[in-house]
Amino acid sequence: AWQETYSTARSPIPAASTEPLCTALAHTKPMGHTEQNTALTAWQRVVQVSPHHLLARLNITELLAALGKKDEGIAQARQTLALLEQETQPECLDGVHVPFGFVTFRVEWDRAGWDHPGDPAGEAAAQRQLLRWRLHALLAQLTGDVVHGFSAVAARPDLALTHAALGHHLVRLGQHLAAL
User: Fold this and answer.
1) 178 or 14: which leads in pLDDT
2) What b/e sequence results for 87-110 when a residue is b if at least 16 CB atoms lie within 10 Å of its CB, and e otherwise?
3) 3-state SS string over 63-100?
4) pLDDT greater than 60 at residue 72
5) N or C end of the chain: which has fewer CB within 10 A?
């Protein structure tokens, strides 16, 4: 009973509708094409129930990109960036990132909690900034627009891999000196 009470108190998703989130969370392991489509459907159900669930929206963007659905991924990333500018409940950041595993996003997501013990607002602000970084990094990949590369660096200037990705992007554009 305490789990149900805790889940209901913390979740922006109505108690009767937690099944979509549970189903989506089951799809956070390494996956092939079929599993990616299944996971995409599950995360889309989460967003239908809780439209402001930012992490679910990022997961949809990641899956659309992985499935080669570039235009849909771009639209989803832009919608999620627009939602980041609005105030949302910190619970809209709860969940697991796809792809699951040891990736920079996952490590930094956990670090946001470690760096802000007992400070949910600080943790949420750090996670929102990380979402901003990842969405701009994805948009730079999907659109080829270097502006998103610069925005990713601005969101998380401490992440060397973001600087490297921007440098690579600039070299592809023939901006060799700017890449240094």
Assistant:
1) 178
2) ebeebbbbbbbbbeeeebbeebbe
3) HHHHCCCHHHHHHHHHHHHHHHCCCCCHHHHCCCCCCC
4) yes
5) N
In the chain, which ranges are continuous DSSP H helix? 2-10, 19-25, 33-49, 54-66, 70-84, 104-114, 120-143, 146-155, 160-172, 176-179
Q: Are 126 and 112 in contact (CB under 8 A)?
A: yes
Is the torsion defined by CA of 30, 34, 37, 38 positive or negative?
negative
From CA 132, how far away is CA 82, in angstroms rounded?
10
- In whole angstroms, what is the distance from residue 92 CA to residue 90 CA? 5
Q: What is the pLDDT of residue 25?
A: 55
Tokens of 4: 């149900």
CA distance 92 to 76: 16
∠166-172-177 over CA atoms, to 5°? 70
CA 113, 119, 120, 124 torsion: positive or negative? negative
Mean pLDDT, the chain, as a whole number?
83
Instruction: Report d(CA 16, CA 18) in Å as an integer.
Output: 6
**Tokens standing for residue 56:** 């679910």
pLDDT tens digit sequence for 38-61: 999 999 999 999 999 999 999 999
